[in-house]
Amino acid sequence: QWMERQGILKVNVVKATLLKDKDVFGKMDPFVELKVGSQVKTTKIMEEAGLTPVWNQIIEFEINNEKEIFLEAAVKDDDGGSADLCGIGSFDFGPIVRTRN
Predict the structure, then answer these.
(1) Closest C-alpha to 13, from 46, 48, 47
(2) pTM across the whole model
(3) What pLDDT shows up at residue 101?
(4) In this structure, how many other beta carbons lie within 10 angstroms of the beta carbon of residue 1?
(5) Three-class DSSP labels, the chain
(6) What does the pLDDT look like over 62-86, one tens digit per residue?
C-alpha cells in the first residue's frame, strides 16, 4: 500500500568522468540536467571543463505526495543554445525513502 511522502530530496552532484569529447574545437562545457517527476533542474555550466567536470553542487527537489521518486540525470555539453547528450543515468529512491506514518 502506498503512503504519503513529503519533504525535500537533496541531490549532491559531485563530478563526472566522461569518455568522449563532444567538441571539435576547445573543451566541453558540461552541465547536468536532473529530473524528478515534472521538476527539471540543472547544475551550473562548467566552462572548458572537458572530460572531468567537478560541480559539488546540491540540487533540491520538493517531494509532495509522490507515488514514485525516480531521479533521471543527463550530462550534456553546452554549445550556446543547444546541448549534446554525453551520458545518462537514473535512480529509483522509492525503496529507500522513509514514509511518514
Answers:
(1) 46
(2) 0.84
(3) 40
(4) 2
(5) CCCCCEEEEEEEEEECCCCCCCCCCCCCCEEEEEEECCEEEECCCCCCCCCCCEEEEEEEEEEECCCCCEEEEEEEEECCCCEEEEEEEEEECCCCCCCCC
(6) 987 666 789 999 999 998 888 999 9
User: Residue 68 corresponds to which amino acid?
Assistant: E
**Residues 6 or more apart from 94 whose CB is under 8 A from it?**
68, 69, 70
Buried b or exposed e, range 61-90, using 16+ CB within 10 angstroms: bebeebeebebebbbbbbeeeebeebeeee
